[in-house]
Amino acid sequence: MNRIGEIARLRRYPVKSMRGEDLTEAQVESYGLLGDRIYAYVLDDAPNPRFPWMTARQAAEMLLYIPTYLPGDEIQVQSPDGKKYSITNGELEERLEAKYGCQISLKHRESGCHDSKAISVLGLQSIRKLHEETGIDELAPERFRANIYVSWDADEPFLEDELIGREVQIGEREVRLKIVKKDSRCIIPTLDPSTTQAFPEILETIKSNHGGCFGVYAEVASKGKISKGDPITLC
After folding, report:
1. Residue 108: beta bridge partners?
2. Fewer beta carbons within 10 angstroms: which end of the chain, N or C?
3. What is the CATH number of the domain that holds 138?
4. What pLDDT score was predicted for residue 6?
5. What is the dihedral of CA 107, 112, 117, 122, to 10 degrees?
């Protein structure tokens, strides 16, 4: 097997559309990263039952809420004004309903509340290229909400696109992922994850230059632990 890169950053998102957290290691289960997007808010009157989630598409401020794991797998969420909520006691739900004039429910799913496939992969070189294409001063990787950010040994952008249909192994524990499809993008990457300021030219460039896709999705072929710095090899 040939080494093609390494994990540069590893991230999970305990609450869908809220801020993510950097990890030094993660458990990969058959359904994705353990603890990734295990909570989500659902719009009670969602027009599309196949996509019922309340996300930063409707409420950009959700990107500023910070979930934290506490002992016992309890998740605490800090709001932009510094107030802290237990994800399960209903107060945060009431706050969001009052602010955005909607009725929502909290959904919990151990296997994650995903839009498409469970694990998203993105090369740092692709972000660098998009930065050049858009001319935006700073293009933080956090905008793209990937699980695995890769530094490719070839130092080429969009190398992840060439892996569709292939399997990669991560580290020495034989965790394997099958790269299955490109990641179709919405408005969320246009929102600065620290301020929610919108830069619509990001999505315009992704659409015009890259067919509306940026990064790839993967399915789990073999589970185990992965760590920041693990080598990635082509199977």
Report:
1. 39
2. N
3. 2.40.33.20
4. 98
5. 110
